[in-house]
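Subject: design request, 115 residues
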């Protein structure tokens, strides 16, 4: 079982940047492909980026491709999401979980992008 705590969100103007962190407990973090998800008000949770267990392979939703970068440090049980050129439509609560969302969800971290 992997438990996660997300942090790093905040209020930023359009065009700005934020770096999210996800710290995972449990001894099996490095065995899982992990992903960042987001949920905007009134919308379904969507996966925005995914990273392989070893960190060599990444995938992004079309909406964030070229602007967001996912990475991980297995020695620190931590995953990151660098978000650049933020847009108002990126406003959402951001969560981390395994690639299939099978573990317990954390509280998430709120990202608000003003126009």
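Subject: RE: design request

Done. Sequence follows.
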């Amino acid at each position: 079982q992997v438990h996660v705590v997300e942090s790093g969100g905040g209020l930023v103007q359009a065009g700005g940047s934020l770096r999210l962190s996800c710290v995972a407990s449990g001894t099996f973090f490095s065995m899982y492909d992990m992903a960042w998800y987001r949920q905007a008000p009134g919308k379904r949770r969507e996966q925005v980026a995914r990273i392989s267990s070893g960190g060599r392979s990444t995938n992004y939703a079309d909406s964030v491709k070229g602007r967001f970068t996912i990475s991980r440090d297995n020695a620190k049980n931590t995953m990151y999401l660098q978000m650049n050129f933020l847009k108002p439509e990126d406003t959402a609560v951001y969560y981390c979980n395994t690639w299939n969302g099978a573990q317990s969800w954390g509280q998430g971290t709120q990202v608000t992008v003003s126009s």
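The radius of gyration is 13 Å.
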